Amino acid sequence: MPRHEVKQVICSLCGTEQEVQQVCINCGVCMGKYFCETCKLFDDDTSKKQYHCDGCGICRIGGPENFFHCYKCGCCYSNLLKNSHPCVEGAMHHDCPVCFEFLFESRDDVTVLPCGHTIHKSCLKEMRDHYQYACPLCSKSVCDMSKVWEKFDMEIAATPMPEPYLNKMVWILCNDCGKSSEVQFHNFDVKLGSEVHGRILKCGFGRNKSLNNNLMGLYSKCGKLKEGMYREALDLFDEMLVSGVLPDEITMVSLVSTCAKLKDLEMGKRLHLYIVDNKLRTRGSLLNCLVDMYSKCGKMDKAHGLLSRCDESEVDVVLWTSLVSGYVKSNKIDKARQLFDKMNERSLVSWTTMMSGYVQGGYYRESLQLFQQMRFENVIPDEVALVTLLSACVHLEDFDLGRSIHAFIVTCGMIVDGFLGNALLDLYAKCGKLDEALRTFEQLPCKSAASWNSMLDGFCRSGGVDKARDFFNKIPEKDIVSWNTMVNSYVKHDLFNESFEIFCKMQSSNVKPDKTTLIILLSSCAKVGALNHGIWVNVYIEKNEIGIDAMLGTALIDMYGKCGCVEMAYEIFTRIIEKNVFVWTAMMAAYAMEGQALEAIDLYLEMEERGVKPDNVTFIALLAACSHGGLVDEGYRYFNKLRSFYNITPTIHHYGCMVDLLGRVGHLEETVKFIERMPIEPDVSIWSSLMRACRSHHNVELAEHAFKQLIEIDPTNDGAHVLLSNIYADAGRWDDVSKVRTKLHETGVPKQPGFAIIEQNGVVHEFVASNLVSADVRCMLQDIERRLLLKQELSDTTSQHSERLAVAFGLINNQENSPIRVMNSVRMCRDCHSVMKLISQAYDREIVIRDNYRFHRFTDGHCSCKDYW
């Protein structure tokens, strides 16, 4: 709308038509806090500091005190440029040479280059970020380049030259100052190739097509593209176009290949459009590059369309195989197989690509069937194909088939070495065949780090931690994988202290731990509730400035959550920038273990608002939180949403959470009906939950029914017998208690003792129920008994349950006012729960116990669970 020509306006409030003015003549409303009579401009936003510039003839933003009008340039500049800018007539009456926005009317900050041309400040910054230091219009330098040239001159002087060129000179013309000079010849290595590029632009030869094509060849031959410096090559394409130079097929092959490496689809499309518009012939290498680019960018329809429009004579087996590979990498296995079956000619690479696709997609049987078809067509596999097949055997744990492939390898006379030898070694090790693995390992002519690590992994899996340690000590050069494998082995064998000991040895051996190492250690700390060790790992991460990504962040949240520090877990949670479903789920699980059901639900709702799709584990954490909080309606709502909204099939764990929720609130009949409606068979955990609910709500008959169902599934379950015995004891049926105990003894079912873990002075101590303890602990147990008896709170405090032993140890060794933290392997019994409340009051100490279900925080005679667990 031509604002200057506007004569009349209509008030939007009263509808009165009138001449252009700031205040309505009828109702008196202000039509705009800012009003320009010349531009006929109204605006209520005074923060813009708008003003009218008579020289420009338009309104500008930013305040008149911050700008001045240069009448020679015909535009407004910042006061900072008042005495320093070179005047160029009509300086801003053109488009920005980078983003092509009309500068005179642009709202973004504009600056003046030393040559006098104008450009957006943001565009200039982007140029510098991409190492572009020449004006796009005249190619003169946009900043002082003297230090850069001095550095290059020093590198040139330090580079030895062949004798014939020692005193050879070449004439150049400087584009900045217009003066000519002579410089010495120098080598075109990768570093100095960049200088050549810069000096070509600086000297005004950017329009020379021969130089530009040779420069692209220089980048390629010097390995510039291989070193990952791809953007410089793509920037050269723009420079050539600005200079009026049209790249040919050879140049486009390099550029399209670069887009494929970067997976830069937009630039790839732009290059393809250039190829079409300039009628370059898409065949041979250029066609291969285009297909590869679209395939790697996931645009298989585009890649397939290119081949469909070509003559059959132009499309060879390499191109079809490239397309099959693209479908495989896009996880479109069915499409890949359809295309593979239509191929008139298949190379060994074609077969291997399809087999590899099956293995990567988890279709291991299909890969073996394809191998049989391949052999039927008399195609001899190479090492790559055989390694793929052995990988399928490993995933299927098919030792016999793997051994037959080994026999085939020997029959064909192939040398078992390198990747093939390591694949065989990996097969035997992961299938638990240590003798065959060791025999293969000893026969390898050259043992690589991967060979040693595969053998070590085999010992860790099947040979026991002692044999694994012995073999680990024999490894001549241990890499990070070797150390991580050994650390993980200790963690899996519940050797917590040993895992940290070897971690310390790892650092003393000058091997820097990676994120995998730290995640293994954090999972170990979470497992045993070793908070101090977990904090130490966190401090190590901070001290070494290791970025906390989603994977490492999840491990930290899990550790703090399972160590009872939900506040620290949330602090880590807030610091993770890109939160995936695992991060959200870990935080919800931390809230659930603390019994903070509402916080877990709020987090779930926030997760949905952020567009993160929950998985089945998320709902396990959410339902567990509902169970701890006794939220029946919310539990049903999220359980139903699991299937109806997210199309996730509930697992036994989801059903277990619901059974626990309904049972804990006392809805026993509803719990039984829920179990009967389950589409899957109830397991031990379901019937155990029902038995615990029956004990809490004193339903002996239903407990007996649940016990019978449980024993049918697991006759040797000692926990079920003990729980039933306790239910009888609560009901005063001592004869039945005796019968259950006698039956348990007669059937020979071993009772698995519970254990408790406490961390003290960097060492993790384990206590087993009814085990012998030190004299100090016995004295503390007697002191506890004496104090509680004096209070006449409880008569029986002599029980030797593991958590009581650990707490007694903590009272002796922990500093005053510091919480006593214990991890208990089994669910805490009622007696111990009551005793812990009394101990916390008698000794004025906070006691934090994590059993296999949730956290209990005992302070001043009360528990955080409010006796609801």
Automatic annotation (TrEMBL):
PROSITE patterns: PPR (PS51375), ZF_CHY (PS51266), ZF_CTCHY (PS51270), ZF_RING_2 (PS50089)
SUPFAM superfamilies in the cross-refs: RING/U-box, TPR-like, Zinc hairpin stack
Keywords annotated in UniProt: Metal-binding, Repeat, Zinc, Zinc-finger
Domain RING-type: 96-139
Domain CTCHY-type, first and last residues per copy: 31-95
Any one biological process term the GO annotation gives: RNA modification
Keyword match ATP-binding: no
Pfam families: DYW_deaminase, E_motif, PPR, PPR_2, zf-RING_2, zinc_ribbon_6
Residue ranges annotated for the CHY-type domain, each copy included: 1-29
GO MF term list: RNA binding; zinc ion binding
GO CC, any one term: cytoplasm
PPR repeat copies, ranges: 316-350, 448-478, 479-513, 580-614
Family to which this protein belongs: Belongs to the PPR family. PCMP-H subfamily.
NCBIfam families attached to this UniProt entry: PPR (TIGR00756)
Protein name: Uncharacterized protein
Protein's organism: Populus alba x Populus x berolinensis
UniProt lineage: Eukaryota, Viridiplantae, Streptophyta, Embryophyta, Tracheophyta
